[in-house]
Structure formats: C-alpha cells, structure tokens
Amino acid sequence: VIVISGLFITLSVLTIQRNNQWANPIVFYKNEVSLTPDKERNWAELGKVYIKEKQIDKALQAFGKALNLGKEGNTINALPTTFLNTYIALLHAKQLKKALHFESIMPVQGLTIHDRSVFYFMKANRQTSSKEYTQAIKSLELSTQLNPGNLDAKANLAALYIETGNKQAGLVLLNQVLMTNPDHKMALMYKKKYQQ
Q1: How far apart are CA 107 and CA 96, in angstroms?
Q2: How distant, in Å, are the alpha carbons of 45, 107, 116, 139, 173 from that of 76?
Q3: How far apart (Å, rounded) are the C-alpha atoms in residues 52 and 196?
Q4: Which residue, 138, 133, 55, 45, is CA-closest to 92?
Q5: How far, in Å, CA of 158 to CA of 179, rounded?
Q6: Which residues contact 161 (CB under 8 A, 6 or more apart)?
Q7: From CA 193, how far away is CA 155, in angstroms rounded?
Q8: DSSP 8-state assignment for residue 75
Q9: Which of 136, 155, 163, 193 is disulfide-compatible with 186, CB 3.0–4.6 A?
Q10: CB 96 within 8 A of CB 62
C-alpha cells in the first residue's frame, strides 16, 4: 500500500508539472527542444510561439535552428511550414531582402491549402507596402480563393480594388465581409473611409 501510494503521488506530481508546461507554450516547446534538439518541427513550433508572443528575434533564432536541421550541403530541405513561418518572422522583423529570398524559394505546393492562403496573404501585405498593387491584388485573390473564410484578406482586397479604381467591386466585397461579420474592424474602417 505504501509503495502504491508513493507511486501515485510521484505520478501525480509529474502530471501536474507536465500540465504546467502545456499551459505555457514557450515553456512547453523549450522543454521539447531540450529533450530532442535534433527535431526540426519542435524548433519550428517554438518559433511560431515566439511570433505569437511578438518575440521576433527569438523566433528567427528558433527558425534558424530548424532550417539548419533540414540542411543538406547548400540545400535546405526543411518542412514547408518552416519556410512559411521563417518568411513571416522575416517580414515582422522588416528584413525585406531575406524575406524576398524566402518568398522566391517557398515550396508553395508543399504547403497545406490553409498555409498557402496565409503565404499569399502575407505576400500581398509585403507587396502593398512596396506599392506593388497589381501583384498584391493577384496574391489576395489567390488567398481568398484558397480560403474564402479569410475576411481580412477579403477586406484588404476590397480596399485595393477601390484604391486602384474599381470602387464598385471593392464596396460589394466589403459588404460581403460585413454580412459575414458585421463587426469586422478592417471592413468597417474601409467602408467608412471609402463611402465618403
């Protein structure tokens, strides 16, 4: 009975400790990379958590380790999601030259449909910042085709339509977004701006 009670207490303490790790994603993935430092996916997941927490320098370090694990000579054979999230972190860090390099080598067909939509959305944001409006429209059209539920992409696309002279199409798209979500902040902001 004493042995069983001791075992029960030990397992209970270990369970509580693991639950505490699960409650904090950074702690969880830091633990995972310490246990399996040669697993690309764990480093990439840690990087994604750092992006969410707006710790971009740490995200880039984690993605650098993930990419190095997938390196064979001069070729990077990392997971497509590692490429995508590195690209996103580089955009957040305003490292445009490196981001453009990742954009050019992005294994788009290897991404899930959702991740392809995210890639084109992020690419459109970069293109819009660079005033490449025609290309940004194409990227947002691809993003919304892949994920029709991406209301942010639809709202941005509507704004670009309006900015490039297609006000009617832009307002129709904004109304579609607002019919889906009447409280969508971007769509409301754009509608107020462009209906004047």
Answers
A1: 19
A2: 18, 11, 19, 25, 40
A3: 36
A4: 55
A5: 14
A6: 137, 167, 169, 170, 173
A7: 13
A8: E
A9: 155
A10: no
What residues contact 43, with CB distance under 8 A and at least 6 apart? 33, 62, 63, 65, 66, 69
Helix (H) or strand (E) holding 106: none
In DSSP terms, which residues pair with 71 in a beta bridge?
Answer: 76
Which pLDDT tens digit goes with each residue over 181-191?
999 999 999 99
Within 8 A by CB and 6+ apart from 108, the residues are 116, 119
Query: Tell me: the pLDDT tens digits for 84-138?
Result: 999 999 999 999 999 999 999 999 999 999 999 999 999 999 999 999 999 999 9
The pTM score is 0.84
Q: Are 81 and 118 in contact (CB under 8 A)?
A: no
Tokens matching residue 61? 């370090």
